[in-house]
Design goal:
Keywords: Annexin, Calcium, Calcium/phospholipid-binding, Repeat. The protein is mainly α and 345 residues long. Helix content is 73%, strand content 0%.
Length: 345
């Protein structure tokens, strides 16, 4: 066997082994959250505890946080339903009347269905000039296909308009095309078949798409191919050109299109690291960005927050828990720390 054949065989072996690791991660998906189903769950006890928390002299914020941050979203929905049946009162409205500020927003996000929270955040991002390329990409690019469909359905139900219509009217150019493609949810699913020919074709297509009127090629490849394939494309692109694909994006695109494409590339490369970077940035602002902290910690608490914590610690040299502990102030602090869950030594 020639040296080149040996290298090719070794490369193929590495590729196969990497996907075996990926398969294990995929099989364990859902165990990487910090918030799990509470095994000793008693809906009656939780309803009574929340009633005492808001009906006594002074609001027992600690009790409210303890209940809501130690139950899965499904269990929280059961609590809200039982509260309504037993008291003829809406739990969400009762807690909103008792709370205020950042803690109120956290409680609202915890008690609402995830799809409704995503729909509201997406709507705000599209209507707020300057955040569509950030929040909209985050929601449309990181939710699973079923989650995305539920979000879009909630969007239509709550705002009486399709999300795609708002994308059309509120954005333009490459950003609009990118968001519309993500909203369609047409990304290919993971395949155990490694298509080296398609990877090479995509690399060549991206290399050639550096002139005017070639933005569609970037949008098509980055929104349609599965992430495992795209990571392979990114690696081959760097070997062929001598620089990362993101370098070309920075030179080729500008403004909101550049920001959106760089965010999407980050999601594709390492979703947990993407969120760790966003959390770090939110904590570095003069005043912590509580909206970002709340959105990420809640939306990822039952999926991959443990992975995000690990990436945060690895990149920034300290734990997410310690960073929150040192930076976050006020009555929302215990809630955000409870969602993060624990220190990473």
């Amino acid at each position: 066997m020639s040296v080149s054949s040996e290298k090719m065989g070794f490369s193929l072996t590495q590729e196969i082994l990497s996907h075996l690791v990926l398969a294990n991660k995929t099989a364990a998906w859902g165990t990487l959250g910090t918030l799990r189903t509470f095994l000793s769950f008693s809906v009656d006890k939780d309803v009574q505890r929340l009633l005492r928390a808001i009906a006594g002299q002074g609001v027992d914020r600690a009790a409210i946080v303890d209940v809501l941050t130690n139950r899965s979203r499904e269990q929280r929905q059961l609590i809200a339903q039982a509260f309504q049946e037993r008291t003829q009162q809406d739990l969400l409205k009762s807690l909103q009347a008792a709370l205020s500020g950042h803690l109120e927003r956290i409680v609202v996000a915890l008690l609402q269905p995830a799809a409704r929270v995503d729909a509201q955040d997406l709507r705000t991002a599209l209507k707020d000039s300057g955040s569509a390329e950030d929040v909209a990409v985050e929601i449309l690019a990181t939710r699973t296909p079923p989650q995305l469909q539920e979000c879009l359905a909630a969007y239509k139900h709550d705002f009486h308009v399709e999300a795609e219509e708002d994308i059309q009217s509120e954005t333009s150019g490459t950003l609009r095309d990118l968001l519309l493609a993500l909203a369609k949810g047409g990304r290919e699913s993971y395949s155990e078949i490694i298509d080296y020919n398609l990877a090479e074709q995509d690399v060549q297509a991206l290399k050639q798409a550096e002139g005017p009127s070639t933005e569609g090629t970037w949008v098509l490849i980055l929104t349609q191919r599965n992430p495992e394939h795209l990571v392979r494309v990114f690696d081959q692109y760097q070997r062929r050109t001598g620089h990362e694909l993101e370098h070309t994006v920075r030179n080729r695109f500008h403004g909101d299109a550049q920001t959106a494409l760089l965010s999407l590339a980050s999601v594709i490369r390492n979703t947990a690291l993407y969120f760790a970077d966003k959390l770090h940035q939110a904590l570095q602002e003069t005043e912590p960005n509580y909206r970002v902290l709340t959105r990420i910690l809640i939306s990822r608490s039952e999926t991959d927050l443990l992975s995000i914590r690990a990436e945060f610690r690895k990149k920034f040299g300290r734990s997410l828990y310690s960073s929150l502990q040192d930076t976050v102030k006020g009555d929302c602090r215990p809630a955000l720390l409870a969602l993060c869950r624990a220190e990473d030594l």
